[in-house]
Amino acid sequence: MAEPFFDITAEGAIDWLGNPVSCSDCPHEENRVSGRCDLEKACVRDIRARRIDRFFSLNPEVADHYLGHPFFEVRAIAARYATPFRLVGLLSDPEADVRAAAASRLPEARILPLRSDPDRRVRISLARRLCGEALKPMLFDDDYQVRLTAARSAPPDLLLLVIGDTDPEIRCEVARRIRADHLPGLMGDREPLVRIEVARRMAPERLHLMARDEDFRVRFAVAARIVPEALQRLANDEDEAVAECARLRLEDILKKE
Fold first, then answer.
1. Of 47, 50, 49, 85, nearest to 64 (Cα)?
2. What are the C-alpha distances in Å from 208 to residues 213, 226, 227, 239, 248?
3. Which of 75, 107, 209, 245 is the most exposed place for a label (fewest CB within 10 A)?
4. Are 98 and 72 within 8 A, CB to CB?
5. Residue 28 has what pLDDT?
6. For residue 38, what are the β-bridge partners?
7. How many CB atoms within 10 Å of residue 120?
8. Measured in whole angstroms, how far is the alpha carbon of residue 137 from the centre of its chain?
9. How confident is the model at residue 148 (pLDDT cuts 50, 70, 90)?
10. Which residues on adjacent β-strands are paired with residue 14?
11. What is d(CA 163, CA 241) in angstroms, rounded to the nearest whole number?
12. CA 250 → CA 2, 176, 211, 222, 230, distances in Å?
């Protein structure tokens, strides 16, 4: 969408074509009289999205009538308030924001074709909505943000599919939510942040497998949770923060005995 040729930060109310907005020729005079619209605050003809949204929040019953408006922002915001069965036609709207708004409210079966939408914003919207097996194709999307959103929505068993994703943030999400018995598969991940997540969740009796990790942050996470009988080695760690964590735990254990 091309940038407006006028200054939308200027004072006053202007429409999407840059013309001044006036209540004198507005079809919603009754709404204004009853306090359900207000120039420069809640107005469907204003270019500002916040004012358009405020108008529809006060007048949701008219949203259906604006689904074909020439300004995409009006269509997208109207889609949040319109009758759901009227939204199907918007799935083929030329503007991604409109398609995403429609997809956020329609049943899953209706929106599945949009998993291959050319715009990442639409696919991200779907990744938030879909669940279970319907998410599987989105875990392999070319866009990492789509994959990350899908990973955050996916059930733990599906996360096995992306345990080797190229993006470390996605592998971190896998490490946070994958079943604990699959965590050993990430112990040797090349990204320390992933290994930290593993150390935070792995069973304490298995953390000795990570006690010599090359990254002190991982060893610190290990020292905070490892079984007491394995703490002595970490109490002599070359990193002072790791060693102190282990020593403090040992001291606490001795006090309780």
1. 85
2. 10, 7, 8, 17, 18
3. 107
4. yes
5. 81
6. 42
7. 18
8. 17
9. very high
10. 20
11. 30
12. 64, 27, 16, 14, 10
Torsion angle, CA of 192/196/199/200, rounded to 10 degrees?
-170
Interval 90-144: pLDDT, tens: 999 999 999 999 999 999 999 999 999 999 999 999 999 999 999 999 999 999 9
Q: Where are the alpha helices (DSSP H) in the chain?
A: 29-33, 49-58, 72-78, 96-103, 108-111, 120-129, 144-153, 168-177, 192-201, 216-223, 231-235, 240-256
In the predicted structure, residue 2 carries a pLDDT above the cut 70: no
Q: What are the structure tokens assigned to 179, written together?
A: 């079943």
Say how many Å lie between the first and final Cα of the chain, rounded. Answer: 69
Distance between CA atoms of 246 and 230, rounded to whole angstroms?
9
pLDDT tens for 67-102 read 999 999 999 999 999 999 999 999 999 999 999 999
